[in-house]
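Working notes for the structural subgroup meeting. M.R. asked for a predicted model of this chain before we commit to crystallization trials. I am recording the input and output together here so anyone reviewing the notebook later can reproduce the run.

Input as submitted:
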Amino acid sequence: MTLLQGLPPVIAPHTRLLVLGSFPSAASLQRQEYYAHPRNHFWPIVSALWGLELRALPYAERIEAVRDRGLGIWDVYARCRREGSLDSAIEEAELNDLAGLAARAPQLQAIAHNGGESARSMRITRALGLPVWRLPSTSPANASWSFARKLAAWREVFDAAGLLPAAPLPT
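Returned structure, recorded in C-alpha cell form:
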C-alpha cells in the first residue's frame, strides 16, 4: 500500500471551531477537496446550518465561506496507508500537529471530531484545554444516522461555538 498524504488545514486566525475528520476519502484525495464524495453530508449539513447552498459554489469559494465564518477543517491523521476510503482500513497512521494548528488559531474555542475514528484522538485534543465534541460522521458509511439526526447534533455544536446565524433558519 502506498503512503497517502492528507490535505492542508483550512484555518484562519479567527477560527472558532475546528472540525477534525480522520483522513480524506479517496475522492477527496483525488480532487484535493475536503468532503468531496457526493454522498458525504458535510457540505449539506453546513449549508443547512448557515442557510447557504455551499455545494453550488466552486470549492475555493466554499473554503472562503468556511474561513470567513470561523470554521476550520482538518484531519487527525497527516499520513496513512489505506486501501479504499473506510476508516477501518487505515494503517500506519501519523498524527497531524494539532497543537501547532491550535496555536495558529488564537480565537479557537472548540474542537469537534467528525466520527468515531477521529474521536479516538480526543485525549490529544482535550489536552489543548478546549471543549471537545464527538459528532456523528458525515460519511456515507454512517447510514445508521438520518440526515435530520446528524443535522440536529451538528446544530448543537455550531450553536455552542457561536457559528450559527443570528436568526434561526428553517430546516
